[in-house]
User: Which sequence fits this backbone?
C-alpha cells in the first residue's frame, strides 16, 4: 500500500476513489498519500485499544 501511494501521487489525479464508494478530490491527495505512508492502518493485535491474547 505504501509503495502504491507514490504511484497515485505521481499521477496528479483530479479525483481518487479509494474504496467502497468514497471519493477524494485531488486537492486532498497529498494528505491522503502522506497518511498512507506514515499512519498505521493494519490490525496490530488490539481491539478497542486492548491487546488480544490467545
Assistant:
Amino acid at each position: 500500500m505504501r509503495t502504491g501511494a507514490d504511484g497515485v501521487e505521481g499521477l496528479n489525479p483530479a479525483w481518487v476513489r479509494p474504496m467502497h464508494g468514497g471519493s477524494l478530490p485531488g486537492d486532498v491527495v497529498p494528505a491522503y498519500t502522506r497518511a498512507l505512508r506514515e499512519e498505521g492502518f493494519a490490525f496490530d493485535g488490539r481491539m478497542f485499544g486492548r491487546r488480544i491474547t490467545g
User: Anything to note?
Assistant: The beta strands are 15-16, 24-25, 46-47, 50-51. The chain has a mean pLDDT of 84.
